[in-house]
Amino acid sequence: MVFGGWFVAMNESSRGTAMSGRSLTQTEAEGRASLLTVERCDVAVDLTGLMTGSRVRCESTITFTCHRPGAGTFADCAAAVESATLNGVVVASPVEGRITLTDLAELNVLTVASVAECSADARGVHKAVDPADGETYFYTDFTPDYARYVWACFDQPDLKAPWAFTVTAPAGWQVLSNSGDPKIEDLGSVRRWTFPPTPPLATYNTVINAGPYYELRRRGAGHDLGLFARRSLAPILDRDAEELFTLTTQGLEFFADKFGMPFPQHKYDQVFTPEYPGAMENFGCVTWMDWFLRRSTPTRAEWDIFARYLLHELAHMWFGNIVTMRWWDDLWLNEAFAEFASNWAAVSVTTYTDAWTAHLAGEKLKAYFMDQGPATHPIRQQVRDVAEAEATFDAITYPKGASVLHQLMTYVGEANFSQGLTNYFAMHAWGNTTLQDLIDAVADASGRDLNQWRAGWLESAGTDRLTLSHDGDGFALIAQGAGGRLRRHVLAVGAYERSGDRLARTALVEVEVAGERTRIDLPAGADLYLVNDEDLTFASTRPDTATRDTFFRNAARLPTATARGVAVTTAWDMLINGEATAAEAVQCLTGVLAVETSASVVEPYLNLAVEAADLWSPESERDELLRTVAAVCRSLSGVGAYRKAALRGFARTAAEPEEVAWLQTEAGEDIDLQWRALVRKAQLGSPTAAEAHALLDRDPDPEAWVTRLQVSAATPDAAEKETVWQTLVTDRAVPLAFVHSVATLFWSAGQDDMLRPYGEAYLDLLPTVDRGGSIPATVFTRSLFPLFGIDLTFVERAEDLAAQAVPVVRTNLLDRADRMRRILHSRG
User: Fold this and answer.
1) Catalytic hit among 135, 275, 281, 313
2) What are the sequence ranges of the domains in the chain?
3) Is 409 exposed, middle or buried (0-12, 13-18, 19+ CB in 10 A)?
4) Are 162 and 40 in contact (CB under 8 A)?
5) Which of 403, 438, 451, 645 is the most buried (most CB within 10 A)?
6) Which helix (H) or strand (E) holds 433?
7) Residue 196 DSSP code
8) What does the buried/exposed string (b/e) look like for 69-79 if buried means 16 or more CB atoms within 10 Å of the residue's CB?
9) Entry pTM
């Protein structure tokens, strides 16, 4: 990410001004790490100015040794510096976010006083005001290298050190940080919180959360567990607390066993804070966007996702915090492993036993798409500087990486895999590692040489294609490697025969694919053959040509959720590659939905069915396919476990005002469903202003105004579109968690003429879309990409602009352009 152009205004009493920070290169990081050892970091933070203003004052004291006394280096600080001394001697103000340090002693102390501004586009710090009660909340967010925008530090992952925070805050606030049990001193209208030093942590794993939080605590797995939310969401936290405490306890016990190391701190807090952009695995104090506390009672699919996210962040306590990558080229060591481990834990010790199937229905499909497009890259790739690292937080690093690790566990066996991880943590706790360290640990435990596996799976891009072939000599799997290079796959192929109105598996053959053609001993005459049955590998799969057409009709007859999930994945992969029509994808999905038994995947499949009908179908077929999906939704609404998800699907597919009226009756007191019905009513061109006003008055949600904005976004009215664009894009007034939902409704089908000018506005936006950091850049680039009112010429222009964009924008823009190119082809 380019930091140029980001400035914080300071008053005249400041010594300097906040400045753009030059992106740290891998070469610079290696040089600095070879020169320095950081002994500790002491940071004093003053939050008292946030009650009436937006400034955070900090004093950072870094104690470090230099292995070559007399040498020089630099510290990172892109905040406004008021004073800076090295060993008691004043040093110059930062240039491009760097404080030059010369003539270093063997032992050094750098002290820097700085001021950070909590502006709308600030990096590293944020002040949020709850619209429900006017209370103020504050958080830090330092991924990947945003700590330098708040205080002075050595902002790279392999200069780990203990951190000791002292925070002065308004007396009515709670202050939370990595280490528990702070000493609290009352100083009149303020209080001082002094936290014990942390274990050695990377800069980006540290945190301060503060505000008048509502708190719940529970013992679990031998730990003191805390949950926090803004006061206005206390009833929702109360509603969800039992499940959150249970999942956290289950995860702590599972990971302690599988990693051979209990979580080493007795306190583990999770903080749900307003306007946070996602979730972050700060050691001992995870920060969440409080969008995860669903205002409407969560569906099973929403709980499934939340459970896996919670376990993902918990797994990071080991993968990322206790053991940290040396440089960002091994980001996957954090993210892919946390993603994999969350599914592993979910199916092993929680009630969310369909986690891998839900992963397949959601995240893995996104990875298949991205990995077959222009934004593909190896799971492990060269990262020359931190700006490039910001572009790698994507569907390849996360779900593809997780799927590949699932394949690795299949390849070496679960017991060997777990033993390798135990050895890895025992050897590298509180240090930094590279990919090879992990590979060596698993290879030693399993007795298998994994260097070829590593090169094929982690260091090459793209998705292999596995096609079942049947000729006079029997069955074979034909493998096509991405870029001509084949990976080694361990997978299974199932044979299914009709048994009444269902299919029964008559054979499951496991095979190791290591060449272009692999013989496989399958029984002849089956009604359906399923490649990658049990979903053991990551590959684009195809049925044999003889059963291609019956494949779509028979997918619903498969006996397990995982088998049906593999069939749905195959159908969707054929759609995005132009080998199946939207009608065939809808046929497959609605057939599966009619018989699905896993509540964890019903909602994801409904979303896919609506997407296929609404976005991928020719205009002449769209209404009929939407009616097909609507009929399934109406049928499923009679099943208690699926009712809410089905009614949500119906709210996106109802074709007539009379159907919307039926939905409003069915919704009853469910305000979330009432809003969804009103959105559909707006899309269909019916007046909604009076109903929206009345519903807004009834809705207790602090962000209900955003839901009202969704109704405006869906309305086919030029003035409404202009107002929404101003609020969403120009003012950036919509909380980041809701940007996608508003933007998707803005680009509603059937409004092409009205939307066409906003395609041009999107292209004009791209040069500045990265202001505020990598997460806003990702969200706005992806969510605002036009879905209607554009053609292939527009797509080509977007691709041309990608070449000039910063890495995080370029990657996401290419991915969205590729998606739209495929959608336009399917519509044609």
Assistant:
1) 313
2) 1-210, 324-458, 466-537+539-653
3) buried
4) yes
5) 403
6) strand 432-433
7) P
8) eeeebbbbbbb
9) 0.93
DSSP 121: T
For residues 99 and 19, what is the distance between their CA atoms, to the nearest angstrom? Answer: 12
* 547 CB-contact burial (10 Å; exposed 0-12 / middle 13-18 / buried 19+): middle
- Coil, strand or helix: which one is 64? strand
CA distance 483 to 465: 11
HSE (side-chain half, CA atoms, 13 Å) at 681: 23
Question: What's the length of the chain?
Answer: 828
Decide if 7 contacts 780 (C-beta within 8 A).
Answer: no
- Known active-site residue 242: no
Looking at the domain that runs over 324-458, which CATH code has it been given?
Answer: 1.10.390.10
Tens of pLDDT along 701-743? 989 999 999 999 999 999 999 999 999 999 999 999 899 999 9
State the residue for tokens 């009345």. Answer: 694
Mean pLDDT, the chain, rounded, equals: 94
Tell me the one-letter amino acid at 228.
Answer: F
Name residue 270's beta-bridge partners: 227, 286
- Give tens-digit pLDDT for 300-318: 999 999 999 999 999 999 9
> Left if phi > 0, otherwise alpha if psi is -120 to 50, otherwise beta: which for 85?
beta
Structure tokens at 196: 């014990």
Q: How far apart are the first and last CA of the chain?
A: 37
- 184-209 burial, b at 16+ Cβ within 10 Å, e below that, comes to eeeeeebbbbebebbbbbbbbbbbbb
Distance of CA 66 to the CA centre of its chain: 38
Give the number of other Cβ atoms within 10 Å of residue 427's Cβ. Answer: 13
Distance CA 146, CA 206 (A): 11
CATH of domain 1-210: 2.60.40.1730
- Write down the residue that tokens 């799976």 correspond to: 457
